[in-house]
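Q: Entry one of two.
A:
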Amino acid sequence: MDMNLLVFQEPRGVMRILHLIFSICAFATISGYTGTIYYTCYQQTAADKFGYPFLIALERNFVNQSGIIANANSSTANSQPSENIVCPIQVVGDFSSDAKFFVTTGVLAMLYSLAIIYVYTKLDNMYKSNSKLPLYDFLITVIFGVLWLSSSAAWANGLTGLKSATNPSLKPQVCKNCTAISSSFSTLNISVIFGFLNFFLWAADLWFIYKETSWFQGNQMQSTEGI
């Protein structure tokens, strides 16, 4: 049960380390994100925060009480609003399914990377002597490649909807000089990049794992016997 650190000098070992690192980076950029929507309306300011899993249901009502009429019949000259113009701002959107799909893929990829690194370092002799283990490793890597591609595409689409929802269009005839601006999405943009980068890394690793399978080794033996 001695540790075989030489595996990290091989491409399959190096790739698993990269899988582990970039999987963590991918889901951490989403789960740790907190955004803010800043409102400015009728000389009033406010802010609402939103974050993972991006199930957003925010509502603000700003009241314009600029028109004031003095009560001339009153000795104390009471003032009362002549009109109350309400500017309703709603920020609604459910992007949780795309975000959870992406984060789940990242967490599962991290766990599998840890597990297969343990197998490479502690059980490498069994891995190489048992023809089924490399095949399972290859098939699971294919599955994670597909998951990273589909979850990254889904989250990229969800992020586009999130950006649109958190920058609501206000009615100019009612909400005069009112704005609702969200904070930067740079972290979430990076998460999409990490997602597609993970797909590339898992897809690229297929060749190195394929070389460990009986499919490749059987073809090599047939080629050698043919010579």
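Q: Entry two of two.
A:
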Amino acid sequence: MFHCDSEVGLDQKPVMSFLCKLAVVTVVLVFYDQVNAGEIIGGQEAKPHSRPYMALLRRNASQNQVLFCDGLLLDEDFVMTAAHCQAEFITVLLGLHDMNDKKNVQEITVKEEFPHKDYNKHGFVNDLMVLKLSSKAQINDYVKPVDLADHSSPVPQHCIVSGWGKTSMNDKHLSTKLMEVEVTLIRDKNCEDQYFFCSEGKAGPASGDSGGPLVCEGGVAYGVVSSFYTPPSGGKNLYLFAKISDQKQWITSTMEESLIKH
């Protein structure tokens, strides 16, 4: 699955700032020099409705642009995605597998956005956002929330990333069907210092997959698709996932405070 189709920019910042926002249209890579992002291929179509927590976010941005991100259902009132997926207006699609088949799909607008208070858009640190739905999701066989890891959860190794993002370098459109790929998390001090989980290699998330969940052993969500980094000297791509496990308390308190307020 997954390729990052992008423009190449130039910014001399610390290593974790060489990142790629994974929104479906406006994606910018940041390198010291021009570096070919390469083709990121791997994965397969997910079994229909085997990941009922998946959400597709249709984002209305400026100049009537429609962009896309992914997300995960937290409960009947809330969805989580990446903070860089903020938009003026968002519609959430739940229960979706094939974009050409809207049977059993719920479309719900977002009432309020809660990006992490310490989100840093220059380094994508704390790239998490909670979305309050305008009406309750109907929980059924096609739509179910996913459990979240907390700070005490053991660090996983093998995980699955799912999304409707592009599947090859030449693609101009999203995948019409939900795709998934297995990734192996690596130990990297830069990732840990910046509150990310990381994986590396040719297969991984890409344009259109931002905000989708990193689901690991036991079917628990540990992270959210944030960005990727290509070393200026070449080498394997590094995929970054904002840690849910470090922010479980913030997520829970944000949801509780929103319900009390309304």
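A: Comment on entry two: Residues 248-261 form the longest helix (14 residues). DSSP finds two helices and 16 strands in the chain.
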